[in-house]
Amino acid sequence: MNIGIVCYPTFGGSGVVATELGKGLAKHGHKVHFITYSQPARLDFLNENLFYHEVEFHNYPLFEYPPYELALASMMVSVVKNEKLDLLHVHYAIPHASAAYMAKQILKTHGIVIPVVTTLHGTDITLVGKDASYEPVVTFSINQSDGVTAVSEELKRETFEYFKITNEIEVIPNFIDLEKFKKQKKDHFKTAICPNDEALIVHTSNFRKVKRVDDVINIFANIHHEIPAKLLMIGDGPERMKAEALGRELGIGDAIRFLGKLEAVEEVLSVADLFIMPSEKESFGLAALEAMACEVPVISSNVGGIPELNIQGVTGFLSPVGDIEDMTRKALFVLDKDNLPKFKENALKRAKEFDITQILPLYEAYYQRIVEKTTSKATI
Ligand code: GMT
């Protein structure tokens, strides 16, 4: 198939899923065209089936906000026509689904029918999308998509709850490439960070409010009070400075390192003992899956799609949002040397259920269904 993928090219989960999906499809022999405003962060290898089309949008003194959505729709029209795409797959509804709708209508006037699949990732529904300033457009563009997928059963449920959806939604979960995300031997790194064999705790996110990074610091402070421990914070975002200040305030600044955005997260995860994800909302929790693939158990909040991944008492534990005491207690239980090996083993076993080899065929079969449905409708 000849597939166009539209996504955010940044480090966010939806961009990662879109890029890894595109890479996987290209390896399966599909031609994949990325359409976005800069090279996706993980589009880091050469393959004859991968193409990248940069959306250029020019500013003009009249525009306070340059109209990216229009430039994106124009680029979609051009790529669909010139590259003869079979399908457009847009990740994150805002503004990609509405831009795709516009592109589709324009292409119709050229006699071209292009099926559009929209994948809902999380905050496009649970936070930003349901805001009154976007809701009518999000509802409309989801209903106008030829296919809609959500990354968890819970996200599907919330989409039906918040919006008047007349379309069906297929659940296709996040996935992981276990060839890349696996425990590697990085003993020298572990010794450098934890010279006295301290427990190593890791958090990865984009440090937005929804991730509750302060909770990570508070849970860690409690753990550190009980056992020798270190914390690595990976990623960057608006809440980082506050989290750094909180660490210093609690007198544990020396036990915490902020590593910023990292390309090879799996190298750090390889030496970690525990992953903390205390998010306010989380439609799936890709970062937790990446940790589990590297044999790291997870302490998380019990929200969104996380319970569809992290199994209570098996791969880690789940607690109510903001319950720092409960998360601390459970973290100490997992870190106990008699318990840790079993949790690590279980985390990997669970991650294997989300291997790309299991999930990619679900997307391929779904594309096939949508193309057949759309083209048969067009010929009636
Ligand atoms: O909101 C974010 O944290 C980023 C967001 C994205 O779309 O870039 O992540 C969401 O999509 C990921 C991939 O499907 C999911 O694994 C994350 O759980 C989800 N984040 C939230 O729902 C908060």
Mean pLDDT: 95
Helix and strand string, N-terminal first? EHEEHEHEHHEHEHEHEHEHEHEEHHH
- The CATH superfamily of the largest domain is identified as Glycogen Phosphorylase B
Describe the strand arrangement of the main beta sheet, using strand numbers.
Answer: 3-2-1-4-5-6-7
CATH fold naming of the largest domain? Rossmann fold
Descriptive notes:
It is built from 14 helices and 13 strands. With 380 residues, it is of the alpha/beta class. It folds into two domains: 198 residues, Rossmann fold; 168 residues, Rossmann fold (3-Layer(aba) Sandwich), CATH 3.40.50. Helix 3 links the parallel strand 4 and strand 5. Helix 3 crosses helix 5 and helix 8 crosses helix 12. The protein is elongated, with a radius of gyration of 22 Å. The structure holds ligand GMT.
List strands and helices in order, with pairings.
Blueprint lengths: L1 E5 L6 H15 L3 E6 L13 E5 L13 H16 L3 E5 L1 H16 L7 E5 L2 H4 L8 H10 L2 E4 L2 H10 L7 E2 L15 H7 L5 E6 L8 H14 L2 E6 L5 H10 L6 E5 L4 H5 L4 E4 L8 H8 L4 E4 L14 E4 L4 H12 L4 H13 L3 H24 L1
Parallel strand pairs: 1-2, 1-4, 2-3, 4-5, 5-6, 6-7, 8-9, 8-11, 9-10, 11-12, 12-13
Helix pairs in contact: 2-3, 3-5, 8-9, 8-12, 11-13
Ligand GMT binds next to helix 1.
